[in-house]
Amino acid sequence: MEALLKTSPNISIRNVLTPRHILTIFLCVILTLYSMETCSSSLRAKLKLPPPWTESIGRLIIPSNRIEKGQHLSFKETCSASLISKKGSLSSRFILTAWHCFENYSDVSRPINFEIKDIKGNIISRIAFRWSNGGGMHADWAILKLDKEVKRSEVKPIEYLIPDISVGDSISIAGYAKDKNSAGNRFDLNYGECKVTEIATDIRLSDCTAVKGNSGGAVMRKIDQYNFALAGIISEGNERNISSFVPIKIFYPELQKYMSKRINLSEKYEAQLPNSGPN
What we know:
Elements: H1 2-5, H2 13-16, H3 19-47, E1 57-68, E2 71-84, E3 91-97, E4 112-117, E5 123-133, E6 142-151, E7 160-161, E8 170-178, E9 187-199, E10 204-206, E11 218-222, E12 228-237, E13 243-247, H4 252-255, E14 260-261
Parallel strand pairs: 7-14
Antiparallel strand pairs: 1-2, 1-4, 2-3, 3-6, 4-5, 5-6, 8-9, 8-11, 9-10, 10-13, 11-12, 12-13
């Protein structure tokens, strides 16, 4: 009995784990992860929760000024913004929003604030600086740089982009808006699923419901079972069934510096894009 309990000194992990054993273990791990992902997606669908990419959406608070009826008004503009990065980056430092959110921002001594929830639901706050933009409503986009990085372990950023989409394509949008039923300054994440209805020169129209505060939010397109890609930036809407967004195609050369290209559904647009080097 004692002899049976003893382990031979000549037995090593190499002797025990053959290539076949290693392959079996690897497949078991993959199947386990796949089951977890499938279960998570199924649970989200049953509970009617928005997809995980919406956790990459935050809120911008912009100190603004304007003259109205001869009086100087000071107020805070609120918009939405998406945390973006290259695939696999350990942290993110850039956000994407709409150009028109800064039309009344003139006092640069007052900081632009960006807030986003981490995986625990806690608010992460950063100061944002204007980095690059389209310069008008014809190209209603802006990229901002944060004063400090946001770790991927805290918030997973949007990583993929696709240049353009077609009429009839299904899309989803998300952005923050003030809760009309709340007496205070409570802002909730608005999420909706809709379709592209018209292709114009610089914008795309949809039947999405975009309300005040959603500007700068993300327009996403599902590219496979688990992943979504950024297809555009919410520009404006009538708060009912018409809204517009700026397609990635308009500022693709600039944006691909910060994100990963994913053309799975959009190879036909590749030839129309400016050649700005490999990504």
